[in-house]
């Protein structure tokens, strides 16, 4: 297989994979959801996966069982490595099979590996011959130009999406700072209440009024801190990053390694936002 056709296959099957994900989401959620990691209509993991299957396993086309088993293994490895790499790179888990039996780290599971195997066999036998026939009709020069245009668009999309994920993690980090401060104030209130009770038990009646004055000053200071933090949290919640909204819709099982509680708060805020529109 030439590099020229490999790249064309990547874009074609990446687009078809995106269409498959969108159709699946439409049946499941009864609305359109851009299920791709990127903004554009392409799922690179499908493009890479199917192209690898064709390049590596087309020679096994005469042996159905061998083709199926090899497809299951190859796609499972690809999905597992991709999920693990994206987890380590962005500190987010984009899909999770941990509730399904025979899964490995939630990145892959037996059920979907078997399904991917069937899909790959179907593609090799029925879909790919048609795709190859159509692509062979494109003049080579036009094909090169098409690859250049799609390549630039894909690279731009990757840069924009990566930047959006970094900004989203920064957003969650700011939200975490606010929740941590609120938690610290809560602990401070509890500690001061305990100390005041102990002091009251040890103090004479004449000294209790002085203690009440101190408590009022401390309470007012803490109240102002809480109001300020809640205002900051509200302002931050009103600035929900648009790319983050799309990513959460596309990956409803997205998990953050560093900001689990904050991501859940973000989900609740997003649901409230969607409920108003």
UniProtKB/TrEMBL annotation:
UniProt keyword Transmembrane helix, yes or no: yes
Residue stretches spanning the membrane: 6-27, 39-60, 66-86, 107-131, 143-166
This protein's name: ABC transporter permease
Keywords on record: Membrane, Transmembrane, Transmembrane helix
InterPro entries listed in its UniProt record: CmpB_TMEM229
Keyword presence, rRNA processing: no
Superkingdom classification of source: Bacteria
